[in-house]
Write a structure and sequence with these properties.
The structure holds two protein chains of two kinds.
Chain A (H helix, E strand, L loop, with lengths): L14 E4 L5 E6 L5 E8 L13 H8 L11 H8 L3 E6 L4 E8 L3 H14 L6 H20 L6 H9 L14 H6 L2 H11 L5 E7 L3 H12 L24 E7 L5 E8 L5 H14 L5 H9 L3 E9 L6 E9 L5 H18 L3 H19 L2 H15 L5 H10 L2 H11 L5 E8 L12 E2 L2
Helix pairs in contact in A: 1-4, 3-8, 9-12, 9-15, 10-11, 11-15
Chain B lengths: L27 E4 L5 E6 L5 E8 L13 H8 L9 H10 L3 E6 L4 E8 L3 H13 L5 H20 L1 H13 L14 H4 L4 H11 L6 E6 L6 H7 L24 E6 L5 E11 L6 H12 L5 H6 L6 E12 L7 E11 L3 H18 L3 H13 L1 H4 L3 H13 L6 H11 L2 H11 L6 E6 L1 H9 L5 E5 L2
Classes of the chains: A alpha+beta, B alpha+beta.
Chain lengths: ~450, ~450
């Protein structure tokens, strides 16, 4: 290659285990720093929610921090932080994750805590926790979405992109009405359905003794019964292209006009998804991208212009365009320039230099994600839960670097088209930046 | 209705093993022939190398009528050099898998490069070119000025940014640069052109008053030679380092409501100034402030979030503003968060109750112990990446602290008494010396807030 990869992409050493109750365990040692990450992915996300109960998976994630049989209300935070660790949980469309990064000598505590709530959350869950965390989550929704300009754009685009009844039609934060409607019994049923060792993957990455650690995992998690009550999520497959442009005008108190579009893209885990990632990078990631050069530098019609990729395994991924206008520029000006650039790209594909740059950018982002033990632990769980094999982590970058310019062109031609997008146009009402393209909700 | 009987086997809570020794990394110091000070630190395994350059171009050095010029200069450093156009420069950075971010703040302009170690030389060459001979092209500067004017409109619409702007304007004397937005106002930014940016560059950007911090896996890297052949080509005259003016503030207790009709939440920012890192009580203040509002089990969130559900989270913090070797610098001490509109006055009332109780009864030994365990224990994790180490080393340089300052803070913290932590946080967060900024719907919250007696209440609309 003309632009050789950094020497460090030699791969992560991985060992796998499975307990009798079905809990999958993935270990990866790294003794450079005396810390280790414990990460637990449950195979449940907002796509498993039913109509009238949107936001339940995320609200439930908050309840997981409210104590269990041997852990007091907020005991997780107190004990982990008191041990010099950091922790949180997040909920996305496709999974819920919980993680503790601990000093090496405190890893056992994290395992004990995770096992206690996996096996006994319902012994502690009560109305007081439910009512309190319902209010906290509603305030989270207000803070991150309802009270900031363009805050609900991602929610609106998701609703437009996936049809009514589709498991990805709503975002993890859920609606205020559904958050109000959720009951304690809903939470209990949710736990009984999805929180079981055979619906989870535990990864541990960092400075630990593997034999000792597996013995601890067996000791703390081994007696938690498996449970097979889970229904698979509703099918998320859709036709490859939408077939017509879907459009919504939003007149709100926002500081400037904005054009946001979501394109339906290939599922995560496919070669086409990697090609789409490269296409979006060339077109709209960073200050040498085509759309930045066109709209921000040359036309000067935009303050910011960029593409993001929301990789999804159980439904089409989303390519998300976000352009905020500059001065008096109109949406029509922006839109015709965007369409011109997309059409040109679909016809010509990336130049060799552009492809090289895009690959180098993706490589750096990948390196960045794998540079911490917690980042690696999360990726191991991701590949195990969504694609069945944590070792795939070691091929992921190579696959992106292997994609050809023609494949990038082809996916752009097939997918980055006006008839394959949902469009949200913001027109300011009077006077009123915070983007929220967050596909995840945090507990804290 | 349901009784849940767990069937798993329970075991007692495990006890910790033996901690591994860890200390904040000590950098090595050297200098290049052009006068550039170098701090470097080898962090095995960290393949992304972090390079931070501190340029002695404080915001106080901006001409008043051209405030924002330091920010425009910082942003223009990315817009091409004597050999590369802006587009080419951005492309070359991306080709190296590198990012280059420059930001102007009160103490200095900070330029941060992050690059895989395998392409360190290319990254350093681009960084050196950006500092040594930025093109500062007229048309790109015009664009950066226009973008900044757009950005101001967006900032006005963002509750957290709006609150910060109002608090700084209220707290500091209007003659102090601290009272005005870091990146300039619409009025001053409009006046900025290439000649203003070039003049600011010529006056303040030179290697002899600058420092570079390099952190990462430097195994097999001949750093001295690499730095000489890249940043060593940056030339400039010698100059005296700038001197920071002392920081003063009017912390008479009062309330400013920035009206945002229809807002579903109120953004809170409650602050005053306090000691910076030169104060002997800094470590105690960090500890005490964590106990007050460092996490969701701290005093504020224990009530406001976990008992009352008023908020997604409220934090207390100390943010150094401008420091000097003689200790005349100060930090902003503040409590920040947002609460649903109806809970505004109740949340403020609880906050003041918490502060008064803290002053009357002090922290408990258990709180102090948990805070020490967290703050000291989490350090190896907090400083896992090269970027986080570089950033703290750069903070130390910027604030005129010794290179072992952070290491010393950890040593002090481990042995601090509960009383010392109490004294520091109580003297920092004095209930009657806090300026409260509320960005929210004035028509709903004003009367209730007035009844709280937190000082004079003023409503502003822009």
């Amino acid at each position: 290659m003309a632009n050789p990869a950094p020497a460090s992409t030699k791969g992560i050493a991985i060992t796998e285990h499975r307990l009798a109750n079905g809990l999958r365990v993935v270990l990866s040692e790294d003794h450079l720093t005396p810390v280790a990450a414990v990460c637990l992915w449950y195979d449940v996300g907002s796509r498993h929610e039913v109509k009238g109960r949107t936001g339940l998976a995320h609200l439930f994630e908050h309840l997981m921090f409210q104590g269990s049989a041997n852990v007091s209300n907020n005991g997780h935070f107190e004990l982990v932080q008191g041990a010099g660790g950091s922790l949180n949980g997040t909920t996305s469309f496709e999974r819920t994750n919980y993680f503790e990064t601990m000093p090496t000598h405190q890893v056992e505590l994290a395992l004990w805590l995770e096992a206690d709530r996996m096996g006994s959350l319902l012994a502690a869950l009560d109305d007081a926790s439910m009512e309190n965390q319902r209010d906290v989550v509603k305030n989270e929704r207000r803070q991150r979405y309802d009270n900031v300009p363009y805050g609900t754009a991602f929610e609106k685009l998701t609703r437009l992109s996936y049809p009514d009844g589709h498991p990805y039609h709503h975002t993890p934060i859920g609606s205020m009405a559904d958050l109000d409607a959720a009951t304690l019994e809903d939470a209990r049923t949710f736990f009984r359905t999805y929180y079981a060792p055979n619906n989870a993957v535990l990864s541990i990455v960092g400075d630990f003794d593997p034999e000792q650690t597996i013995a601890w995992v067996e000791k703390y998690f081994g007696s938690i019964p498996a449970h097979d009550g889970k229904q698979p999520p509703r099918d998320g497959t859709l036709p490859e292209v939408i077939g017509q442009e879907i459009r919504e005008l939003v007149e709100e108190e926002v500081p400037s006009r904005a054009l946001m579009s979501a394109y339906r893209l290939p599922h995560d885990g496919t070669r086409e998804a990697d090609a789409a990632d490269l296409a979006l990078t060339v077109l709209g990631s960073g200050e040498s991208s085509r759309l930045y050069n066109r709209l921000v530098r040359r036309d000067r019609t935009a303050v910011s212009a960029g593409f993001g990729l929301l990789r999804l395994a159980g439904a089409p991924s989303l390519g998300w365009l976000d352009v905020k206008t500059s001065g008096d520029a109109t949406i029509a000006q922006i839109e015709s320039a965007v369409d011109e650039e997309l059409a040109r790209f679909a016809a010509e594909g990336p130049t060799p230099e552009e492809l090289e740059r895009a690959q180098a950018q993706i490589e750096r982002e990948w390196l960045d994600r794998l540079t911490t033990v917690s980042g690696r632990a999360d990726e191991l769980c991701r590949f195990a839960v969504l694609f069945g094999d944590p070792k795939l982590v070691n091929d992921a970058l190579g696959k992106v670097l292997d994609v050809t310019a023609e494949e990038v062109r082809a996916v752009a031609a097939a997918r980055l088209r006006p008839d394959n997008r949902a469009v949200l146009v913001y027109e300011p009402l009077a006077t009123a930046d915070a983007d929220s393209d967050n596909a995840e909700e945090d507990a804290a | 209705m349901s009784t849940f009987v767990p069937t798993m086997t329970f075991h007692p809570q495990p006890q910790p093993g033996t901690p591994s020794p860890w200390a904040f990394p000590a950098p090595s110091r050297s200098a290049l022939a052009n006068g550039l000070t170098v701090l470097h630190c080898d962090r095995p395994g960290q393949q992304l190398v972090a390079v931070d350059v501190l340029v002695d171009a404080p915001l106080a050095a901006e001409p008043t009528e051209l405030e924002g010029v330091a920010t425009i200069l910082a942003r223009a450093l990315n817009e091409g050099t004597d050999t590369l156009t802006a587009e080419q420069f951005a492309g070359e950075l991306e080709r190296a898998g590198a990012t280059l971010d420059a930001n102007a703040d009160h103490p200095c302009i900070r330029v941060a490069l992050e690059v895989p170690v395998s392409r360190l030389e290319r990254g350093l060459t681009l960084l050196a070119d950006a500092l040594r001979s930025p093109a500062l092209p007229e048309d790109e500067i015009e664009r950066l000025v226009a973008n900044r004017l757009d950005e101001i409109v967006h900032e006005q619409a963002n509750p957290a940014r709006r609150a910060a702007k109002a608090l700084y304007a209220e707290l500091f004397d209007s003659a102090d640069r601290l009272s005005r937005p870091r990146a300039g106002s619409a009025e001053s930014v409009k006046r900025i052109d290439r000649s203003a940016v070039k003049a600011f560059y010529d006056a303040h950007v030179r290697p002899s008053t600058a420092t570079v911090v390099v952190v990462g896996d430097l195994t097999g890297v001949d750093l001295p030679a690499l730095l000489e052949s890249t940043l060593g080509t940056w030339t400039g005259d010698r100059a005296e380092p700038s001197k920071a003016a002392p920081v003063t503030a009017d912390d008479t207790g009062r309330v400013i409501i920035v009206d945002r009709p229809g807002a579903v939440q109120t953004q809170l920012l409650i602050g005053r100034i306090g000691p910076d890192r030169h104060d002997p009580a800094w470590a105690a203040q960090v500890l005490g402030t964590y106990c007050l509002g460092g996490t969701l089990t701290s005093r504020l969130d224990r009530v406001l979030r976990e008992e009352k559900g008023y908020t997604y989270g409220v934090r207390a913090f100390a943010q150094p503003l401008r420091s000097a070797p003689d200790g005349s610098g100060r930090a902003l001490l503040a409590i920040s968060g947002s609460v649903d509109t109806a809970s505004t006055a109740p949340a403020l009332a609880d906050t003041w109750t918490i502060l008064r109780t803290l002053a009357a009864e002090g922290l408990t030994d258990a709180e102090r112990e948990e805070a020490v365990q967290y703050l000291v224990g989490v350090a190896p994790l907090r400083y896992e990446t090269a970027g986080s180490v570089a950033s703290t080393l750069a903070d130390q340089v910027e604030q005129h602290l010794s290179d072992d300052f952070q290491a010393e803070v950890y040593r002090q913290m481990a042995v601090l008494s509960t009383q010392a932590a109490t004294d520091a946080v109580v003297s920092g967060f004095q209930p009657d010396r806090l300026v409260t900024v509320l960005v929210g719907d004035a028509s709903v919250i004003r009367d209730q807030v007035k009844e709280l007696g937190l000082g004079e209440v003023t409503v502003v609309t822009s």
